[in-house]
Known about the structure:
This protein is of the alpha+beta class. The chain has 2 domains: 4-205, Bira Bifunctional Protein, Domain 2 (BirA Bifunctional Protein, domain 2, 2-Layer Sandwich); 212-252, SH3 type barrels (Roll), CATH 2.30.30. Helices cover 27% and strands 32% of the residues. The protein has helices at 4-10, 29-38, 88-104, 157-160, 166-170, 176-190, 195-205; strands at residues 20-23, 46-49, 55-56, 62-63, 70-77, 110-112, 116-119, 122-134, 137-147, 212-217, 220-229, 235-239, 242-246, 250-252. The strands form 3 sheets. It has a 7-stranded mixed beta sheet with strand order 1-2-5-9-8-7-6, sandwiched between helices. Strands 13-12-11-10-14 form a 5-stranded antiparallel beta sheet, with no helix packed on it. A hairpin with a 5-residue loop joins strand 11 (220-229) and strand 12 (235-239). Helix 1 (4-10) packs across helix 6 (176-190), helix 3 packs across helix 6 and helix 3 packs across helix 7. The chain is globular.
Amino acid sequence: MFSREIFQEFLETESLGREFHLLPQTASTNTDAWNYIENGALHGTVIFTDDQHSGRGRRNLKWISRKEKSLTFSIILTPEFSGEELGLLPLLTGVAIVRAIRKFSKLQPGLKWPNDIFLNGKKAGGILIETKIISGNFFAVTGIGLNVNDTVDGFPEEIKNRSTSLFAESGIILNREELLAEILLELEQLLTRKAKDIISLWEGYCIHRDIPISFHLEDEIITGNFQRITPKGHAQIFTNGRIKEFSSGVLTL
C-alpha cells in the first residue's frame, strides 16, 4: 500500500505534490482532479490512487492498472504556456518520467511520440493531458499511469505482448513513493525550461528518430521516417519525398 508519510519524506519540490490527495479507490484520477479544481484546488495538487478501475487513455481507450503495483495519479497545473506551446506539455512530462526512472534505477526507458514511455520495445507508461478554462483561468490536468512493480503475467491478454513494467525489466521491486517524488521534482524543474530545451531533451530520449514508422491519422495510414519535433510539439514525418507536420495521430514502429 502506498504510504503518504514515506512519500512526503522523499518530496523535495516547492509546489508539485505539496497538496496531496490519496484515494483508496476511484474511477479516474483525472476526473477527480477536475472536481478538485471546481472546489478551489491550486497548481501542483496531486491526486493519487492505488486502485483505479476506469482510467482513461488517449483516443478514449481505457488505461489498465493493477492495484498497489503502479503509479496512477493526476497533477493539476496552471502552466504559463501559450496556446501554440500546449503540445509541449505531454513531451516535457514524458521527459520528467524518463529522467526520474534513469536517476532512480539502472533502467534506460525512452519516449514514443507524443506520450508513451517505452522499455525494451514495450510500453511501460502513458500520459493523458486534459485542458479547460474555468472562471477565466487555464488549467491542465496531467494524468500519468506507470507500470512499476507489475508482473507481465498479471497483464490482461490483450496487452501482455506489448506491455511491460519497471520490475519486469529489472527484476527489482521499486519504492513507488520515492519514484513519484522524483518524477514530480523533475517535472517541476522542466516546467521552467524554454521550449527549445524541452524539444532537445525529448529528442534525445526518442526511440524512433530517423527510422521508418507508420502513422495512423483517422482512416489514413502514412509511412515514412520520423524527423523531429516542432516548437509546438508537433511531429514531422518525411513521407513521399517531403516533410509533413502532424499535431495528433498514432505512431507505430
